[in-house]
Design goal:
It is built from no helices and 11 strands. It is mostly beta strands. It starts with a strand and ends with a strand.
Length: 116
Protein backbone atom coordinates (compact mmCIF):
# COMPACT_ATOMS: atom_id res chain seq x y z
CA UNK A 1 0.00 0.00 0.00
CA UNK A 2 1.36 3.40 -1.01
CA UNK A 3 1.57 5.87 1.86
CA UNK A 4 2.84 9.41 2.27
CA UNK A 5 2.55 10.63 5.84
CA UNK A 6 3.32 14.26 6.63
CA UNK A 7 4.25 15.46 10.10
CA UNK A 8 5.83 18.43 11.83
CA UNK A 9 3.08 21.00 11.39
CA UNK A 10 1.76 23.15 14.20
CA UNK A 11 1.23 26.64 15.53
CA UNK A 12 4.20 29.00 15.35
CA UNK A 13 4.68 32.73 15.80
CA UNK A 14 5.66 34.97 12.87
CA UNK A 15 9.39 34.75 12.34
CA UNK A 16 9.50 31.23 13.72
CA UNK A 17 10.46 28.00 12.06
CA UNK A 18 9.15 24.49 11.50
CA UNK A 19 10.47 21.38 9.82
CA UNK A 20 7.98 19.25 7.95
CA UNK A 21 8.63 15.61 7.17
CA UNK A 22 6.96 13.24 4.72
CA UNK A 23 7.53 9.54 5.28
CA UNK A 24 7.01 7.40 2.18
CA UNK A 25 6.29 3.70 1.88
CA UNK A 26 4.89 1.23 -0.63
CA UNK A 27 6.78 2.53 -3.66
CA UNK A 28 10.35 3.14 -4.81
CA UNK A 29 10.82 6.55 -3.19
CA UNK A 30 14.24 7.18 -4.73
CA UNK A 31 12.81 6.98 -8.25
CA UNK A 32 10.22 9.72 -7.74
CA UNK A 33 10.49 13.48 -7.94
CA UNK A 34 8.83 15.12 -4.96
CA UNK A 35 6.94 18.31 -4.26
CA UNK A 36 5.45 20.25 -1.39
CA UNK A 37 2.08 21.85 -2.17
CA UNK A 38 0.01 23.93 0.21
CA UNK A 39 -3.57 25.06 0.40
CA UNK A 40 -4.64 28.02 2.48
CA UNK A 41 -8.21 28.39 3.74
CA UNK A 42 -10.53 29.46 0.93
CA UNK A 43 -7.78 29.31 -1.70
CA UNK A 44 -6.64 26.88 -4.35
CA UNK A 45 -3.54 24.70 -4.10
CA UNK A 46 -0.18 26.44 -4.39
CA UNK A 47 3.00 24.66 -5.39
CA UNK A 48 5.73 25.48 -2.88
CA UNK A 49 8.86 23.53 -3.72
CA UNK A 50 10.16 20.54 -5.67
CA UNK A 51 13.19 18.25 -5.69
CA UNK A 52 14.33 15.68 -8.21
CA UNK A 53 14.69 12.01 -7.44
CA UNK A 54 18.41 12.23 -6.60
CA UNK A 55 18.05 15.38 -4.54
CA UNK A 56 20.47 17.24 -6.76
CA UNK A 57 18.04 19.85 -8.11
CA UNK A 58 15.58 21.92 -6.12
CA UNK A 59 12.93 24.44 -7.07
CA UNK A 60 11.03 27.06 -5.08
CA UNK A 61 8.08 29.34 -5.50
CA UNK A 62 9.04 33.00 -5.34
CA UNK A 63 6.91 33.38 -2.22
CA UNK A 64 9.17 31.03 -0.21
CA UNK A 65 12.55 31.40 -1.91
CA UNK A 66 15.27 32.15 0.59
CA UNK A 67 13.13 31.07 3.55
CA UNK A 68 12.28 27.41 2.83
CA UNK A 69 14.64 24.53 2.04
CA UNK A 70 13.53 21.23 0.56
CA UNK A 71 15.61 18.10 1.01
CA UNK A 72 15.27 14.34 0.96
CA UNK A 73 16.93 11.27 2.43
CA UNK A 74 16.41 8.38 0.03
CA UNK A 75 17.92 5.93 2.53
CA UNK A 76 15.16 6.86 4.97
CA UNK A 77 12.42 7.30 2.33
CA UNK A 78 11.72 10.74 3.74
CA UNK A 79 11.16 14.21 2.31
CA UNK A 80 11.69 17.37 4.34
CA UNK A 81 10.78 21.03 4.22
CA UNK A 82 12.66 23.38 6.51
CA UNK A 83 10.62 26.54 6.90
CA UNK A 84 12.25 29.63 8.42
CA UNK A 85 11.10 33.22 8.87
CA UNK A 86 7.51 32.10 8.73
CA UNK A 87 4.81 34.62 7.87
CA UNK A 88 1.06 34.57 8.52
CA UNK A 89 0.52 34.06 4.79
CA UNK A 90 2.34 30.73 5.06
CA UNK A 91 -0.65 29.40 7.01
CA UNK A 92 -1.99 26.41 5.09
CA UNK A 93 -2.28 22.67 4.96
CA UNK A 94 0.97 21.34 3.50
CA UNK A 95 0.90 18.22 1.32
CA UNK A 96 3.73 16.16 -0.06
CA UNK A 97 3.43 14.76 -3.56
CA UNK A 98 5.39 12.07 -5.35
CA UNK A 99 5.32 11.80 -9.12
CA UNK A 100 6.92 9.74 -11.84
CA UNK A 101 5.65 10.04 -15.42
CA UNK A 102 1.89 9.42 -15.04
CA UNK A 103 1.98 8.16 -11.44
CA UNK A 104 1.24 10.59 -8.63
CA UNK A 105 0.73 10.06 -4.92
CA UNK A 106 -0.42 12.48 -2.21
CA UNK A 107 -0.26 12.58 1.55
CA UNK A 108 -3.08 13.61 3.86
CA UNK A 109 -1.49 16.93 4.77
CA UNK A 110 -0.24 18.66 7.90
CA UNK A 111 -1.57 21.98 9.19
CA UNK A 112 0.80 24.92 9.58
CA UNK A 113 -0.56 27.99 11.35
CA UNK A 114 1.53 31.14 11.69
CA UNK A 115 -0.03 33.52 14.16
CA UNK A 116 0.83 35.61 17.17
Amino acid sequence: EVQLVESGGGLVQPGGHLRLSCAASGFTFGSYDMNWVRQAPGKGPEWVSGINSYGATTYYADSVKGRFTISRDNAKNTLYLQMNSLKPEDTAVYYCNAYLRTQAYWGQGTQVTVSS
